[in-house]
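Posted in: Structural Biology > Protein-Ligand Complexes

Title: Requesting predicted complex, D-malate in pocket

I'd be grateful if someone could produce the 3D structure tokens for the following input. Sequence and ligand are given below.
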Amino acid sequence: MKRNTNYDNLEQSYLFSIIGKKVNEYKKQNPDKKIIRLGIGDVTKPLCPSVINAMHKAVDEMGVQETFRGYGPEQGYDFLRTAVQNYYKNFSVNLDLPEIFISDGAKSDLGNILDLFDKNNTVLVPDPVYPVYVDTNIMAGRVVKFVNAKVENNFLPMPDNNVKADIIYICSPNNPTGAAYNREQLKEWVKYSLKNGAVILYDAAYEAFIEDNTIPHSIFEIEGAKNCAIEFCSLSKTAGFTGTRCGYTIVPETIGKLNKMWVRRQTTKFNGVPYIVQRGAEAVFTEQGQKEIKINIDYYKKNAKIISDTLAELGIWHVGGKHSPYIWLKCPNNMKSWEFFDYLLNNAQVVGTPGVGFGINGEGFFRLTSFGSYENTLEAMERFKKLF
Ligand code: MLT
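-- Reply #1 --
Done. Output follows.
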């Protein structure tokens, strides 16, 4: 046996595991302190009533001979694929059902999709970035190049024609910075990608937080994107499915052989998302479901505003919070990211995510999420006010 030694090139642990461990240690030593977690982007509002009703109904069906379901289609049931297809019509994007693949979340498929690409492709990722893009490519032994996301470019790097890349990652609205590309900027990326014969892996997990139509919800709103992009979306943040697991991946039929290859990959390695979960996901896309999830998204947006307003009041530089559940701030007093993490945990018992965990350009920055409860967000900001 020869093990995959590319794993030796990874950071020792996944960012959110390190944070979890640090917080648990602190908790053990300080059992009386109330910790407020604004670190990992995990939602706190329960699943909405339409989803719960649909799931209950599906559970009942599973207990009756006539309506019981075993293995489902690996690509997802047509009832959910059709719901996704109709949802995209809101953005004037026409998809054919064979282009829509139901997944157990964007994170899994962002890793799985790499099965389709040769090891010798060059990968381009922004820095800072969601660690999954980098780690999954390191595991496969690919060369990863970085494009700098900085204050100077509003954390929205643009393509450089002198840099040749084959696989490009874009997350908009962005995790971790909350920055979002407008239509003109995305056109540039599509143009670059078509010119270089590259593929864009577009992470749209936060599209439901977009507030106006200057920001595309889907890369496929851009002409030509169906020839060069694959899109990943998730119901995790949109509808509280972080624990339930359901998302969708769009692999256009017009992007060479990739659609057929993905069908082949999925039918071999995946047995589909549970029927009960898919019925719940279908309910998200109904008129009532959309109304209900909007209430939760607005709740998180209100939290984002509380965070953003407090930071502004304290004179702490930050971006995000608009079109996004994340707020990206400059660590006060020129602290480094992990230094600020420890300082905040020890002095305010507030947990956030050190910017450097997302890449070198994140050093000196810090991410807070608006996914906590309203009460905890308010309290966390009161603690900030006492500290700074
Ligand atoms: C985050 O906090 O960056 C996200 O929760 C990670 C994820 O969605 O996997």
